[in-house]
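Quick note —
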Amino acid sequence: VQLQASGGGLVQAGGSLRLSCAASGITFRRYTVAWYRQAPGKQRESVASLSRSSTTTYSDSVLGRFTISRDDDKKMGYLQMNNLKPEDTAVYYCNTELVGTTNNFWGQGTLVTVSS
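Predicted structure written out below.
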């Protein structure tokens, strides 16, 4: 199983980035896909999730600015991030979980830096 996250970078406040997560080795369409982030000195936190049945959740801090999506045919997950703020600076991780099982996998993380 492999999750490859990409799309991070340096952006000015107010800008946008789109993160991608490429999955292999799993039946992706059965899995919930999620994004987490970890800022320096802070614990990893949930950002957004998208279930196999298209149910979405967002943290309060990103609601209205970030959009999670998926393409099951391509085995890809995405996180569109708009109106970025300096407090969004973190390493972003993609995660996939087969609910009800121990199948829970993490990507390697991609760094997002938002300058003020």
